[in-house]
Design goal:
alpha/beta; FAD/NAD(P)-binding domain; Enolase-like, domain 1; 3 domains
């Protein structure tokens, strides 16, 4: 077979890269190597609607199997890439086969960060569909409480689902506030109130030292009874395949602004890719980077500069983020925290960096357009409810 494009990784980024190549008219072979036995599927619903029983497994798949056949995407399921031979342009598989490539896209994602304590094997994690199926069953069976270790997005989504199922829930966070790596203190405080208001116990500045089948032990010897322990303490990018092939790695597979690795014929996208701006873990990032690489392969390269956005659903709260707020020196509130409908605008030297929105979809959409277009927005305008953000965008475009 003539070497074509090989994509290692069957998550959202890998699938979107294959789809984008076909959409742009690439006619050569496309091979998508998936370590899991499942075809590519959506991860966000696993900690939300799927876990709560509102969505079934067959609804999370990104494409029907017929799609891959129709678009001539060779889908390799249940096999793992073990080595990249850059000289021979071959990807070696755990099953013993090899796949030749002209250009290679690494979309190998990330894995759950393991809890480094005694008895951690008794805990569950949530990233894959199989893990979600197991967790949903165990959640239904839980009778003596659920302990969630980690107060980030995944941990809090699991906690919300467990409380929605009527389970006693304790969230344990080692940091002094929730979601500390991702949000500002005002949002941390808001979500702390939300979860405690829903009846969850939330322990901050608290570490787990041991997990047992029926409880967890905290620093100081305090024990919390639980027949289900879920760990959500972040992820680790899968860099081993790239590192062993001699590619540059850091907190992810190092790429340039065009998403090329240190080998110009190998790209990296999605959760595993360390772009000069940041390594980002989101559906938007995976999709947009996939399209960016497809355009580059088709001879139309452009730097990856899409504005990142994220979201999480917890209870009745839809929280949406756009931009990167790191380094902000001023924040402006728009709306009402008490009404649970507000946005926080982040500025650095009066330039808008990012916006966090709680149940304010209009603000979120406007902020995405403002940041993408580079529209000037002052802190005074952001805080003025009478200022029409949509009109500001229109005026800028006229």
């Amino acid at each position: 077979m003539t070497p074509g494009i090989v994509i290692v990784g069957g998550g959202q980024a890998g699938l979107e890269a294959a789809a984008a190549l076909r959409t742009l008219g690439y006619d050569g072979p496309v091979t998508l190597i998936c370590e899991e036995a499942h075809a590519p599927y959506q991860r966000p619903p696993l900690s939300k609607d799927f876990l709560m029983g509102k969505q079934e497994a067959d609804s999370v798949f990104l494409r029907a199997l017929a799609y891959y056949e129709k678009h001539r995407i060779d889908l390799v399921l249940g096999d793992r890439a073990t080595e990249i031979n850059r000289g021979a342009r071959l990807v070696h598989l755990a099953g013993g086969g090899t796949v030749a490539y002209e250009q290679l896209i690494l979309a190998v994602g990330a894995r759950n960060r393991a809890l480094p304590v005694s008895g951690a094997e008794h805990a569950l994690y949530l990233r894959s569909l199989d893990e979600a199926v197991t967790l949903r069953q165990r959640l239904a069976e839980a009778r003596h409480g659920v302990v969630v270790i980690g107060g980030g997005f995944i941990g809090l989504e699991v906690a919300a689902a467990a409380r929605g199922a009527g389970k006693a829930v304790t969230v344990i966070e080692a940091a002094p506030r929730l979601m500390a790596r991702a949000v500002s203190p005002v949002l941390s405080d808001f979500f702390l109130d939300v979860h405690r208001g829903q009846g969850a116990d939330v322990l901050l500045n608290t570490a787990v030292v041991e997990v047992r089948p029926d409880c967890v032990t905290l620093t100081g010897g305090w024990r919390i009874n639980a027949d289900l322990v879920v760990v959500g303490i972040g992820v680790v990018p899968n860099i081993e395949l790239a590192r062993d092939a001699g590619l540059e790695v850091s907190d992810g597979v190092t790429v340039d602004e065009f998403l090329r690795t240190s080998d110009p014929d190998i790209f990296a996208i999605g959760d595993c890719a360390h772009h000069p701006r940041a390594r980002l873990e989101s559906v938007q990032n995976a999709v947009d980077q996939a399209k960016c690489v497809a355009r580059a392969i088709m001879g139309n390269p452009a730097p990856y500069r899409d504005v990142p956005w994220f979201w999480t659903d917890q209870y009745e709260i839809r929280f949406q983020m756009v931009g990167l707020a790191a380094g902000y020196d001023q924040s402006v509130l728009r709306g009402s925290i008490e009404d649970r409908k507000f946005s926080v605008f982040y500025f650095k030297q009066r330039r808008l960096l990012a916006v966090d929105s709680v149940n304010r979809f209009g603000d979120h959409i406007a902020a995405r357009k403002i940041l993408a277009a580079g529209t000037a927005l002052t802190p005074e305008q952001a805080g003025d409810e009478t200022a029409d953000l949509k009109r500001l965008i229109t005026l800028n475009q006229s």
